[in-house]
Amino acid sequence: MAKRSKPQTQIPENPSTSSKIPFRPQKILKLTTQTSPEIPKILNPLTSNSEITLALNHLRSSDPRLASLIDSYTPPSFDSDRPPFQSLARSILYQQLATKAAQSIYTRFVTLCGGESSILPKTLLNLSPQSLRQIGVSGRKASYLHDLAEKCSDGTLSDSGIKEMDDESLLTMLTVVKGIGVWSVHMFMIFSLKRPDVLPVGDLGVRKGVKMLYGLKELPKPLEMEELCEKWRPYRSVGSWYMWRCIEAKGVL
């Protein structure tokens, strides 16, 4: 890839391929009140086929347009098993880089740490900015990694605490870390923590998918995204996954 990728336009992991999708852009539909199927009161992470099936059944029932898209792909998977700290460090390293370049730097980073299981706060704090620069990590990203490691070392953050926080608290706490913004937290919640009800309203890919799905004239703004995708709740993470597949199939990245 010749140009550097921007985080907001990058298709996250777990891609699925398809050359066609069975719908065409249509006129804008007015929002209507629909009766949602019964859903569990306590939502579990998207870690099993049964949870994915519950999500797909709900989305098919609540949004007929999304139902036709769901039938075009195999069910999604959210299979990252990295601990939260490792996932966040990896997210920082991947920022604003083409996928191939990011993978190369991350591989060298893992080697520098002594293996992926050794990517720990104390390990990062012992790495100098110079040693990180030697493997291709910018000085700015090195400062981000050290800030993350410091906050995990002083008890501000922890893997167990991150897993137990609700979505709102997690967004507040993680965006305190240098270099981690709202978009990064949304991606982390969907693909690392497998949270079922995350709508990344600032993600360009999801916005493009919603525009295509509902035949909008313009890219929807955050408030409009919330309104249009309300019917997907409490499985907006899965609905978002299909928006990425939608634009991937149409080649409008």
Provide a descriptive summary of the structure in words.
This protein is mostly helical and 253 residues long. Helices cover 51% and strands 0% of the residues. The protein is built from 13 helices and no strands. The chain has helices at residues 49-62, 64-70, 84-94, 99-113, 121-125, 129-133, 139-153, 159-164, 167-174, 182-191, 204-214, 222-228, 236-250. It is elongated, with a radius of gyration of 19 Å. The two termini are 13 Å apart. Residues 1-11 and 13-36 have low confidence and may be disordered.
Q: Which percent band covers the strand fraction?
A: under 5%
Largest sheet: none
How many distinct beta strands? Answer: 0
Could you tell me the mean pLDDT? Answer: 86
Radius of gyration computed on alpha carbons: 19 Å
Low-confidence stretches at least 5 residues in length (pLDDT < 50)?
A: 1-11, 13-36
- Number of alpha- plus pi-helical segments: 13
Distance between the termini: 13 Å
* Dominant shape: elongated
| Helix-strand topology string | HHHHHHHHHHHHH
Structural class comes to mainly alpha
Residue share in helix = 40-55%
How are the elements arranged and paired?
Elements: H1 49-62, H2 64-70, H3 84-94, H4 99-113, H5 121-125, H6 129-133, H7 139-153, H8 159-164, H9 167-174, H10 182-191, H11 204-214, H12 222-228, H13 236-250
Helix pairs in contact: 1-2, 3-7, 9-10, 11-13
